[in-house]
Amino acid sequence: MSILTLSNASWPQLGLRRLALLGLIIGLLGVFMLSLAFGSVQIPLGNVVRILVGGTADRATWADIIFKFRLPKALAAALGGAALAVSGLQMQTLFRNPLADPFILGVSSGASLGVALVILSVGATGSLLLAGLGVLGDFGLAAAAGLGAALVLSAVLLIARRVQSTVTLLILGLMFGYLTSALVSLLVYFSLPERIQSFSLWSAGSFGGVTWSQMRVFLPAILLGLLVANVIAKSLNALLLGETYAHSLGVNVRRARIWIILSASLLAGTVTAFCGPIGFLGVAVPHLCRSLFNTADHRILVPTSMLLGAILALLADLIAQMPGSQYVLPLNVITSLLGVPVVVWVILRQRKGGGG
Amino acid sequence: MNTPTPPTNFSLSTHNLAIGYTPSRRPATVVADQINVALRPGELVALIGPNGAGKSTLMRTLAGMQAPLRGQVCLGKDDLHRLPADVLAKRLAVVLTERIDVGNLSAYALAALGRHPYTDWRGKLTPHDEEVVQWAMTAVGATALAHRSVNELSDGERQKVMIARALAQEPQVLILDEPTAFLDLPRRVELMRLLGTLAYTTQRAILLSTHDLDLALRVADRLWLLPSGGPLMDGIPEELAFNGALAETFQSEGVEFDSMAGTFKLHRQPCGPIGLEGEGLLGQWTARALERIGFEVVRNGGDLEIPVPVTVEVGAAQWRVKGQVGPHEFTTLADLLTYLRQPRA
Predict the structure, then answer these.
(1) What ipTM goes with this model?
(2) A6 and chain B in contact, CB less than 8 A
(3) The architecture CATH gives domain A3-353
(4) B60-81 average pLDDT score
């Protein structure tokens, strides 16, 4: 290529190590099986496997427990965790802000508003109306939340197409969030206590509410969002250098931004609609992956965030069930109580290592 | 200077280019007009000019980051501003002044980002891509940095890696906005020499903007001189020095371009003429010291028309002052300067 000759220096290997990927996949399968085995009733792992491959279990009810309750919940947790982690990663890179989370553009506030409108204001007659519409009854809350999230998302996208600066977009997203939060507070203020109770139950977050029929919407939506995230990972890498450099590397920044927001919001919006606003995973998992795999390369971070997000969501759900007891703790409490110390430890260790 | 129909071997050329910006709801502000210049393969061009003359606007316009007000920028034979971003990225690369914060990325991975326009949708590097990145890292002398995290690199090292990243784009034109801005003097010299060598060995056109006039004069194959209010002047450094263009551009109070020495002279409070007798290194640096504190030095009785009230004789590690004062002897240059700077009635 030139008069310069290549030296025999050793060059770093880029891309994801097979071993790391394998480890994460094995970990995910392990936690997935555990979450099927543990709950208010313990089912031995051997029986779980037998039930899954179509065999008969020691007790007839166990198959029902797994297929009707635990399998959809575990699937929802795995998909939801992956979705939130990837969504958070995308937002952190797009806004070049380590504190960004999936809900930074007001997606969850929009969903909250939708749910609050249904639970708090439509009330009894509205619920009857929804129930009368059959399938909508099952989807009532999810539909309301999805609609609210979609509404905020459309507003953000509309602005994103016009606004040049990403920072402006960030501030507008935050303002949307405040606005919808204020409206939700207003609804709460004028509501009956029992309705507030059911609203706060939704706010606590749970993977358990996703039924098989809901899964028909939940699963494709999440898979689509994850697919887009994987395709857009290359542009995310260029965006690490900032938008000017990204453009100079051939990225259509405005288009990339729209796709990133679409993917991240679809993921976060879907999870919020079906499982409630689940905090923390979206902020923490990307940071954990950056530390664990010692990189900022999205070709590594997107798949590992997906896997680690799924693992941690399953673990959090497992703990929230308090195996052996009849109690179920709010999911958000678990993600924060257990997750915060871990992330604090990882971040501090990373800073000490000279990185920053 | 004007080249209406350029030969095809120009890497980049401008045709009656007018640059500036358009504030919203107000008429456009023209920063410079009628710019007709060209970059040739293998040439290092330095854009210099006082602050506010529009260097950044010109750089941004030539890099395709800002539209021209009038006229055209041609990359080879194509209109640069009509090329899609992904095509442009294979032909023109930039290194900007803005500090990058990429987080935890190895220098090698950062340089590999330069292959972005060439890789498939997954961004996977082929063996050829890796080879190009390794060549680029070698070309800028950054092989030893490959494994280091970008966070741990010094400003100079990071700048080198960013240049490697730009080279990995295999561009015909490389545009660098003040690449020496954050560097100390040895690092600046090293970087400028590197860029000069790169332009020649890789036969690419390199354009950089800089405030480092002294260095630009020594290293650049060509200077673009942009005075406040234009017009842009184009020439080899020596030409612009002896035709007075440099002196004129940087004319301002207290600073003067010395066309003879090719450097800037600072005017302190004027102290009048002083004689100096002495040769060699010691004589040279004594002259510099005397000029620094404001004397107009007349070497070895040079110009007899100027009456010198005081003369300094430089001997072996001693300085003697004679004339209207003294005679006094000093064993260090510092003592001599302290004595000469004392206010006298």
Answers:
(1) 0.82
(2) yes
(3) Orthogonal Bundle (1.10)
(4) 92
